[in-house]
Structure formats: structure tokens, C-alpha cells
Amino acid sequence: MLTVRSRSQELFIDTFLLAWDSDVVDTIKSLDADLESLFCLAPCRPGQGNGWTTRKIQEIWAVAPATEGESDVLFVDSDGQEYSGMFFEPVMGATRRELIARAS
Asked: DSSP letters along 27-52, please?
């Protein structure tokens, strides 16, 4: 769940429900707005039970992935942990290229 605050109309806040990490990046880049908050919900990683896991994201980065086929989006949660992909896989060896947004 992505919440942004308009730069042109200070009291204008929008909230979006998005499915993919790339949708989050595209939405933020297309708006004249600042990241207010990003709360991510994902299925548990295989072998870690059924259900869902959540993360409060503080930063979103475009990255050069270390391995072909990995996501080129990096989420940094409120604890400083880095995650990527559908199951919030820990990130290994990705190179940060561009800060997309930082939560206020």
C-alpha cells in the first residue's frame, strides 16, 4: 500500500494498492509527490510456513542486480534490512543505482 503527498497541493494525499515492485517505482516516478509511506504484504517464503509477511519500507532503490533475472528494485525496511522480489528475498551483491524515494 503506497501513500504519497502531493508537492503542488500540500494537503492532497493519495493511497494506491499495487501488485508489483515495478508498479511502485513507476507510480512514484509518474507523480509530482513525495513518499509518505509504503507498507508491503507478501506471501511467506517457501518453507517458512503459510500466510503472509509484512514490511514497512523506508527507501526504494533502483539497483543493478547481481544475478540475471533478479528484481532491479530494492526495498529497505524500517530496520535497515534490504529485500527484493515477490517473497522479500534478502539482497546479495546488488549495486544501488538511484534512490527512487525515501519515506518522510
From this structure: HHHHSSEEEEEEEEEEEPPTTS-SSE
Domain count along the chain = 1
Q: Which domain holds residue 91?
A: 2-102
**Contact indicator for 40, 54 with CB cutoff of 8 Å:** yes
The answer to whether the CB of 34 falls within 8 A of the CB of 101 is yes
- DSSP code at position 23: H
Note if the pTM is more than 0.85. Answer: no
User: Which 3 state secondary structure label does DSSP give 2?
Assistant: strand
> What is the three-class DSSP state of 85?
coil
- Does pLDDT of 104 surpass 90? no
CB 55 within 8 A of CB 76: no
d(CA 76, CA 23): 17
